[in-house]
Amino acid sequence: MTKYVICAVLFMSTVFVSFCEQICEQNRYIVFFAETADMPNAVVDKILSSHSFCITVPVNSATGVSKNLTQLIAHGKIEVSLSFNPEPNFSALFMLSNIDSKRLGRRSIFKEYISNNLTDFKNNTTKNKFGAFLNHASISYDILCCFAKLGLSWVNMDNFGNNVGGVYYFEGITTFCLYMDFPYDKEDIVKWVQSNQENIIPVLLTRKHLRDVELMGYLINVLDNSKYIKPVTPMYIVDTKANLIKQKPQKFKQFSCNEYVMKKLYSTANLINDYVNASNFKESTYNDARNELIYLCCNQLLEDACANKSEGKRRFDTIYDNICRLLGETRCENETSVSAGVPNQHTTVDPIENGISICNEGLLKSVQVVSKSDVISISFSFEEGTWNKNISFIDFYIGLNDIEGAGSTSFLIGINGFLTTKSGWEYALRVYEDKAILYKYSSDGASFVSNLSVEKCAVSISKKYIRGNPVNWGYQAIVVSDSCDKKIIVDFFNQSTKTKDKILSIKPFQVSAVRCENS
User: What CA–CA distances, in Å, run from 76 to 51, 61, 144, 294, 498?
Assistant: First the structure.
């Protein structure tokens, strides 16, 4: 069977080469941009064994190059590019930089953020010439000019013209408009290239492409056997193929925000600018506030807030209020939070046969904890009946008693906050859509117990780990979402008289366990 597969691959490669010979009288170039640096070792090995394949990989400016990429870089197979983390909507952040500021000797918030990332990237990669790969690549002519002045050699974008691909030059910076429709089936690769007549073809390889070992092996083999299609890096195009780069009028699709969001963004930027001249100014506080503004400008958060999605708007207002409190303001411009007048979002706990049922007003609708013959079964339910895709994971805490000082009050690693002193946990679950991890409290903190499977949003814990009557226990569920690479608490259990928004607004975040009122 393997013999036939190899023959088929060689045949398709021959077809591809023949096709290229028919349509090409000179080299054409294909530039691959990886969506992520996360590639299987088998794909890394295939790239290493290739004599021509190369790819551009985004690298976090603060952490530098990961170990699995060093060998590829050493062999010239990878060009590392700057990846902003978090990555804001650059158009929104740039608009805030037009605010008149009295901050003598300082750059705008936008330029400070960009230049800091560039400096970190240079220090961590020892590179002086490089470009930036943008996940949200909607930018403008002014932003491109700013990028060029700060030293970026290239950048990608996706809001130029009518979703066209190609390579263009704007005032000192090369811009790659990526083709986003590269095939996921190897049988379609030749046809796709045949339909594209560009001299330079910039292509996005998604996580799905990169994790398909068979597809990547086929693609690498095809290009190794091609005489006319040559894989190259963006810097190769910038340095040696300027004559093939197009010049185009500067027409960009513009970013738009509603009045509610823009008013708060401008208010926050003004507050941060004014803080520089405050008598109690601290550089660390200023940096913290600026970083929070970067998160406030993240694309998905802005889209949700502008679309009046309740969860997105709540998170937007929470970060907004955090900046105000950080800089000593109760509320920017004495505005009222969007959460004012929101119901209490209460949580109730009731006994059922052999356990309890927790009903919650939020993303997590209910949890049932039931004692069965040899396991404790914990099932989660959501409004749509399946796992809510807005949720990254749920930390579910179980307190076996109601004694002051018993158990741990600290949340699991990665989440900032605490339980009250009478709500300490003895067992905790970190629950994902397809798996769960059980921890037990020990004197050293959270101690790993076991990996567990999740089936239809339910987890079963063996009674060799935990015993007792679920009706007598206390519970807390911390529901976490990823927003712009930042973990944000988006829901939790609440039996207090305060609203969830009010509890979230108080720092440090602290909540009590919920209990059956009849226990």
Answer: 10, 20, 28, 34, 58
Torsion angle defined by CA atoms of residues 247, 249, 253 and 254, in that order, rounded to the nearest 10 degrees: 120
Query: Is the preceding peptide bond at 508 cis, omega within 30 degrees of 0?
Result: yes
Which two three-digit tokens encode residue 134?
Answer: 């943008």
Inter-axis angle of helices 259-275 and 109-125, nearest 10: 70
pLDDT at position 100: 57
Report the SS3 class of residue 442: strand
* Residue 406: how many other CB atoms lie within 10 Å: 17
Which runs of E-coded beta strand occur in 182-304? 200-205, 229-232
Supply 2's token pair. 């393997």
Least Cα distance to 366 among 253, 168, 514, 220 occurs for: 514
Is-contact 370 350, C-beta < 8 A? Answer: no
pLDDT tens digit sequence for 368-401? 999 998 899 999 999 778 898 889 999 999 998 7
Q: What count of other Cβ atoms lies within 10 Å of the Cβ of residue 6?
A: 11
Q: Is the dihedral of CA 481, 486, 487, 488 positive or negative?
A: negative
Distance CA(512)–CA(519), nearest Å, equals 16
pLDDT tens-digit readout, 283-314 = 888 888 888 899 899 888 898 888 888 778 88
Tell me how far apart the alpha carbons of residues 294 and 298 are, in angstroms, rounded to a whole number: 7
Q: How many CB atoms lie within 10 A of CB 280?
A: 8
CB atoms within 10 A of CB 443: 6
What DSSP letter does each residue of 399-424 carry, written as one string?
A: ES---TT-SB-BPPTT---EE-GGG-
Sign of CA dihedral 138, 142, 143, 144: positive
What are the start-end ranges of the E strands in 117-228? Answer: 154-157, 166-170, 173-177, 200-205
Joined together, the tokens standing for residue 125 give 């990669």
- Distance from C-alpha of 247 to C-alpha of 456, rounded to nearest angstrom: 54
